[in-house]
Amino acid sequence: MIGYVPQGKSKRDETVTDTRHFSRIRVAAALLLFAAMLAAPDVSFAQESPFLTGAESLQSNILAWATPIAVILVMVLGFMAMSNRISWGWPIGAIIGIAVIFGAPQIVTWIRGMFAV
């Protein structure tokens, strides 16, 4: 049955049909790839500078380390202030410093917006 062609059809008709089928698959794959590129432009176009990528990585690493340290610091300073071992200025200063450290990206965005940079 190899090479069997039904009555009324030629081998050429099957080749044309197969080619059209594969071209539809190619068009569908291209549209799917284009939609994926639109959904993730940062990954697909890769136009970020190496400095920005390194700075964001450094920022995320610092925040990863600072989070448990800040929690422990607030607990210790709060306990010491409540037991009257230190003045309340130290815990308040620590909380303001923590707010500045964790709010740094928003502060930078705010300042850049003020100067239209």
Task: Note the main attributes of this structure.
2 domains, mainly alpha, 117 residues
Secondary structure blueprint with pairings:
Layout lengths: L10 H29 L1 H5 L4 H33 L6 H14 L1 H11 L3
Helix pairs in contact: 3-4
Please characterize this protein's 3D structure.
The protein is elongated. Helix 3 (50-82) runs antiparallel to helix 4. The chain has 117 residues and is mainly alpha-helical. The longest helix has 33 residues, at 50-82. The termini are far apart. 0% of the residues are buried. The chain has helices at 11-39, 41-45, 50-82, 89-102, 104-114. It contains 5 helices and no strands.
DSSP E strands, number = 0
Q: Class by helix and strand content?
A: mainly alpha
- The termini sit apart by 73 Å
Mean pLDDT: 79
List the secondary-structure elements in sequence, H or E: HHHHH
Rg (CA only): 31 Å
Number of helices: 5
Characterize the biggest β-sheet. none
Give the overall shape: elongated
Strand content: under 5%
Overall number of domains = 2
